[in-house]
Amino acid sequence: MKASLTSARRLQAAFVVLLVVCVAQLGWWLIDQWMYSAEVTRRAEAFYRQSLAAAETLYGRGLAAEAVVQLFPEIVVAPGGFAIDPVRIAELKDERFSRINQYAWEGGFFLLVLIPTIGVLASAVRSETRLRRRQHNFVTAVTHELKSPLAAMRLAAETLEMRDADLEARERLIRRLLTSLDRMESTVSNVLDTARIDEGGLPLTPEEVDVVGTVNELVEALSDTVQTRNVELRTEMPERLHLPADIQALNAILRNLLDNALAAVTGIDGGVVVVRIETAPGEVTIEVRDNGRGFDPADSEKLFEKFWRPGNEMRREGRGTGLGLYIARHLASSSGAKLTAHSDGRGKGATFRLAWPTA
Amino acid sequence: MSSAPRILIVEDEPELAAGIRENLTLEGYEADVAGDGETGLESARSGAYELVILDIMLPHKDGYAVCRELRQEGNMVPVLFLTAKGEPEDRIRGLEEGGDDYMSKPFHLKELLLRVAAILRRSRWYGSSTIDDPVVRFGGNEVDFRTYRGRSADGSEHELTHKEAMILRLLVQRQGEVVSRDDILDVVWGYDAFPSSRTVDNFILRLRRRFERDPHEPRHFHTVHRVGYRFTGD
After folding, report:
1. Has the ipTM of the complex gone over 0.90?
2. Angstrom distance (rounded) from CA B93 to CA B68
């Protein structure tokens, strides 16, 4: 990982060097042209002056002015003698400036092409590096997300085996085992779902789904987790409500929103998660609200990006692999629904709102 | 020190933290849990704990940083890293940051309990042996085992690491005897935190550089070929 970062940085440094060398080279060509053309002009002018002197000598020795002018085409008759033809001087200057102009335009065009190309390449390298860093974080996160519940499960099982636990302790240990098992299952399905999305999406088959029943089932399945983590999970829903949805997709979206909310309140005193369903003409809003960790409002879109996680690989500011919300957003969009996130800031809780069309 | 040893568990996974805590309590220890790096560091600073079981990937402050800060403050409480990061380089980094032992998740409960007992035994051995004899003087050198500070014959000051102090403590305690590399590994490291007895040789070299007038002609830290080391005072 470090090696790839260093090589990306080296590549960016190479782009900068390339750009600097090109600009410097171009500058040098222009200066060189400027000086060379000045030298050529100076030599031509010296030659003209020599011709003028020769013309004046010949005229002084008695040659007719017309004959002198014929011998030296760059000389003209001027009042009181001869002079260098001003047209020739102007031509020299024009030629000089047109050459410099040509180089300046060609150089400018060259830079115009070079700079955006290097910009595109540099930004491609940068985004590639960012993706690699996130993927590396993802691998670490998945390792953590699989090993942690595994460790908790092994510990619970070995405790059961080693200790002569009473009934209450046994129940507690088994609940802990099941909580960890749920978490592992959730991580595994998220990894598999992401792989399927990347391969071209999960096929959706909409049907009439009992959304209240689905939420109740999920809440029931999470009861062990809720109990072991000492948090509250509440629902505010109508008694019955059906939605046109793919049952698997809706289930995965809600499971991820609940997992996310429960992770946000874990370790917080008085952590509460509320699921609220409201109906409006044309749509149903399912809201998952928590009073937990929250997020920086500037990140409200970023957190739906694949592999996005708060903190870095060493400082785990939250659980998860950075896949759950990505999957939820993807499945919501594919179902024609809209999933948005809102928080007043870190430590101020969060609300995830899923607006599902009923028509 | 005769009361039940207090152990601090710094772990953000509530299920795991609760499980470890329960088992430590059943073994007769007192255990507390801190759920993130900053609270963990704060609690460890209190000096109330004989051992810190420290996760690495933690909210707010990672475990390496917690251990590093403790060591920089001169807090030598033994640290056992317990983490999902199990690569050899993670292990080496943990020990470099001043950790005393390293276990990766998932772990065996019995092994954890054995390692905890071994670390506490080592640290209690060091603690009790320094009570009677906190300062050692040899060849113009002076080392205070309580503060890990030493002054060599040429007047330069040294801050010893925990391991250096433990090795010196062991050699001084068995002055004149040959102490084998295995004995040193067993007392100072215990188990298999380090794979090779070459590590011991490196630590002896460090002690020689600190306290021998000529490290190539040692007068205090003698090598006994193929066996180990013998310490002689003045």
Report:
1. no
2. 11
CA distance B46 to B42: 7
Q: For chain A, say whether B213 makes contact (Cβ under 8 Å).
A: no
Q: Give the burial class of A62: count Cβ atoms within 10 A of its Cβ; 0-12 exposed, 13-18 middle, 19 or more buried.
A: exposed
Chain B hits for A148, CB-CB cut-off 8 Å, are: 13, 16, 84, 105
| This prediction's pTM | 0.69
Q: Decide if domain B6-128 falls under CATH 3.40.50.2300.
A: yes
CA-to-CA distance for A345 and B26, rounded, in angstroms?
42
- Taking CA–CA distances from A157, the nearest residue in chain B reads B109
CB nearest A147 (choices: B23, B106, B110): B106
> For A12-46, b where at least 16 C-beta lie within 10 A, e where not — what string?
beebeeebeebeeebeeeeeebeeebeeeeeebee
Contact A316 B110 (CB under 8 A): no
Q: Do B58 and A313 touch (CB under 8 A)?
A: no
Chain A environment of B59 (Cβ under 8 Å): 267, 311, 315-318
Instruction: Report yes or no: B56 and B63 within 8 Å, Cβ to Cβ.
Output: yes
CATH code: domain B133-231 is 1.10.10.10
Q: Please list every residue in chain B whose beta carbon sits closer than 8 Å to the beta carbon of residue A159.
A: 19, 22-23, 109
Two structure tokens written together for A304: 């739906």
Residue A91 has which token pair?
């031509």
Show me where the domains of chain B are located: 6-128, 133-231
Block means of pLDDT (10 residues each) for chain B, length 234 residues? Answer: 84 91 95 94 94 92 94 89 85 84 92 92 85 87 89 90 88 92 83 66 91 92 92 86
